[in-house]
Amino acid sequence: MNQSYFDIIHLIERLHRYFLDVIRAELRRIGIEDINAVQALLLYNIGENDVVIRDLKDRGYYQGSNVSYNIKGLTETGYLAQERAPRDKRSVRLKLTEKGAGLCAAIRELQNHLAATVDEKHREELDVTSDAMLRLERTWSDYIHHGRPR
Q: What is the pLDDT of residue 50?
């Protein structure tokens, strides 16, 4: 069991790097050179929602300084719009611009295509893998929030 656990951890890291490579290749294919794969993934995760920067951090998607740096870049390149919340001026809401929504749609289409390609051959294995990954996420989340069980 220990070896399987370590194999999964290494696989998670590799898959994340490959996923960013896939997004990078798609950005090149559609001629986008002004943002990187991490920034495109950030746009994809924001999607059609209006979100507060803190929400992105709290969901665990991004680290503090990285998200601020990437949001600044995405705003400067016209993919994101920022708006101060009317009640709490410290809170900044993020929303995709038309340019950002277009890129998000292209990434969504790519994801749908890739999912269909994998899903038609390996649906059951994906379901089992998803369940295992969710259990692993829960284990790590419990450790982070409650410490090591005694």
A: 83
**Alpha-helical segments (H) within 63-97:** 64-76
In the numeric block, the tokens 């705003």 are attached to 75
**CATH number of this structure's domain 2-146:** 1.10.10.10
- How far is Cα 130 from Cα 43, in angstroms, rounded to an integer? 24
Give yes or no for a contact between 101 and 40, defined as CB atoms under 8 angstroms apart.
no
pLDDT-flagged residues of the chain (< 70): 1, 58-65
For residues 114 and 15, the answer to whether their CB atoms sit within 8 Å is no
Burial 10-38 (b: 16+ CB within 10 A, else e): eeeeeeeeeeeeebeebbeeeebeebbbb
In tens, the pLDDT along 34-70 reads: 999 999 999 998 888 888 877 777 665 666 568 888 9
